[in-house]
Structures are given as C-alpha cells and as structure tokens.
Write a structure and sequence with these properties.
about 350 residues; alpha/beta; Rossmann fold; 2 domains; 7-stranded parallel β-sheet; 7-stranded mixed β-sheet; about 35% helix; globular
Length: about 350
C-alpha cells in the first residue's frame, strides 16, 4: 500500500512521536511505501521526512504527497487551531484523492479543550473533520465520549496509544540503563526544562527520595543541558546511583527507557510544542505486554500555589502501588487493529 503519515516525527521524543514512529516502522517492515510529513515545530533531520514550515507550505506538501496514496493518516493531540486546520486539510485532500482518511487523536487534554472550542469556527472545524474521516482512533474512553459531542460514533475506534518494544536493543547496547535493571520501580521524567513545574517536582522528588529500589530516568530537552543536569545531580546526590540521563533525541535509548518505566512524567505538548510548562505536568502509568508499551490511565497536575512537594508526594504514592486496572489488554495486537482500518 502507498501511505502518507502526517504528525510529529521529530525529537524531543516522548510517547506521541514514539507511537507515530512505531506505526511507520511496522508499515515499512511489511513492505508498504510510506511518505512522512512532520508537523512538529522542531524540524526532523531524517532525509526521508518532509518538514512543513507554514500552513501554506503544509497545504502544498500534503497535496503533493497525498497524490496516488491509498491512505492518509493524521496524528495529533488536537490542541491548537493550526493543528485542527492541518487535520481538516489532510482529511479533505485525502478524500479528494480517494484515499482512506484516518485520524489518531492522542489523549492528553482534548477531553477538556474539546469542550471549549469556539462556537464560531472551532466546533465546526472539529465536526467537519470528524464527519469526513473514515476512522478516528481515540486512546481513552473519556476523549472518545467528549468527541461524540461532535459526531456519532460509527467511525470511532478505541485503541490505546502504544509503542513497540525495541527487541533489537540488547542490554549490552544500553549500558547507561544497566544499573536500573534490578530496580523495583522506575520513573521517567521526559523533556525536562528549567524553569518549569516539571523541574520543581523532579527536584523535590530527588531531595526527598531515599529508597534504593527506585530508579529515575531523566531526559533533558534544553541545549546545552550540562548546567541543568548538574543542578539535578546536586538535588539527588544521595541517590546518584539510581539516576540515569538520556539524550532527548536518542530514539532507541528512550524507547528502551519507556519499556522499562512504570510511570512517565512530562510537560504537556501538542505537535512538538510544549504548553503550560510553568503550571502543568502530565503523568502516565505504563502498561506492558510482550510486544508493546501502552497507556490506559493518566493525570494532569495544574499548579495553584507552591505545589511541587505535593505533586512529588502524589507521584511517589502512585509509583508505590501496583497497577490494578481491570481492563489491561495484555494479548491484543494494537498495530493489527490500526492496520485493518487501512483496508476496510
């Protein structure tokens, strides 16, 4: 099949773009012909990826690369007006060229923002996009239910966001993660910047955590990162043996870190752009099957006052408890469910 994928495919890597890249890799392994348009504010350095510099540039590139395709698949979190325009454009162009139009609406904040869209323009854009798409994939039931305000559910699908577990990356290829191998719990702080609420929570956690059975993986997205890394090492000097730093653009190592972690804490973002970093963070519990890392539950912390210590305590409490979600999907092949939508 000839497939156009549109979404965030550039570092800094997190669950959104690692999921998108997992889909791309599996499609290529099957021998499909894939084109990629990266809509992140960070340009991709991959030669085969096309970067969109503006909306007009995006429209021209979608028209060019959607021509002759069997499927146009758009990945987004649905925050921004530009993102919604790009979503609607991709669906319309795909329809005009007789391609199947698929949307993956990544869960994060759409269950809130989706209800706040303007009645003049915003709601109509969402409604038209949902109406013309062949299939819309939602990662959680809450986002699914909010989206039903705009469209009946006949073309909705519920599939959690997933990342393929990297079986090619052997232990001797990831020596930096080796010291966390025997830790009972591992928490990943992704895309840390200073100043930010995420940095404050991490600093508090490092200062008050003395448990030797907890491993902490930190991905710093600032450049240069040496000064910020030094600040964090000072905060956690008592548990320095439990800390690991991973480069924000090391896709293989971060994929491995996601596969090892029990909890992910990161800033909120949409299409590669970080939002609300001074007063909000996103927390996801990690579930694992043989082939995938996937996510069934998450929380958003919104700051009101001095709350870093409180958030750190809540995160520690979540980390200490086993996941008791009764809806674990250990045996499901999530990719195959997505793949079937391309052919229906």
């Amino acid at each position: 099949m000839r497939i156009l994928l549109v979404g965030n495919f550039a570092p800094p890597y997190e669950d959104e773009n690692l999921h998108n890249i997992s889909i791309l890799k599996r499609l290529k392994e099957e021998g499909n012909e894939c084109s990629v348009i990266n809509i992140s504010e960070h340009p991709s350095k991959e030669k085969e990826f096309v970067n969109a510099k503006s909306y007009i540039d995006f429209v021209l590139k979608v028209i060019r690369h959607a021509w002759g395709k069997d499927v146009v698949h758009f990945f987004t979190k649905g925050y921004t007006r530009l993102g919604l325009l790009q979503l609607m454009t991709s669906i319309f162009v795909g329809r005009i060229f007789r391609a199947r139009a698929i949307v993956s609406l990544h869960s994060e904040f759409f269950s809130v923002i989706g209800q706040m869209r303007s009645k003049v323009g915003g709601q109509q854009t969402v409604y038209l996009s949902f109406s013309f798409a062949h299939k819309i994939i939602f990662g959680d039931k809450d986002t699914y239910d909010v989206a039903s305000r705009y469209k009946r559910k006949h073309n909705f699908e519920l599939i959690p966001l997933f990342i393929s577990r990297d079986k090619e990356l052997k232990e001797n290829e990831a020596p930096v993660l080796r010291k966390l191998k025997d830790k009972k719990r591992i928490i990943l702080f992704s895309n840390v910047q200073y100043p930010s609420l995420l940095f404050d929570i991490l600093s508090s956690l490092l200062s008050h955590t003395h448990a030797n059975d907890i491993g902490i993986v930190i991905s710093v997205s600032e450049t240069p990162s040496a000064k910020l890394q030094h600040l964090l090492e000072e905060s956690g000097h008592d548990i320095s043996g439990n800390m690991v730093f991973v480069a924000y653009d090391d896709m293989k190592l971060l994929s491995k870190a996601y596969g090892m972690s029990d909890l992910i804490v990161r800033p909120m973002s949409c299409d590669g752009e970080i939002f609300f970093q001074d007063f909000a963070v996103y927390v996801r519990r990690v579930e694992r099957s043989e082939d995938y890392v996937y996510f069934l539950s998450s929380l958003v912390f919104v700051k009101e006052g001095e709350t870093a210590d409180l958030c750190a305590c809540i995160i520690s409490d979540i980390l200490s408890k086993e996941s008791d979600d009764p809806h674990k999907l250990q045996s499901e092949d999530f990719y195959s469910k997505v793949r079937k939508m391309y052919e229906a």
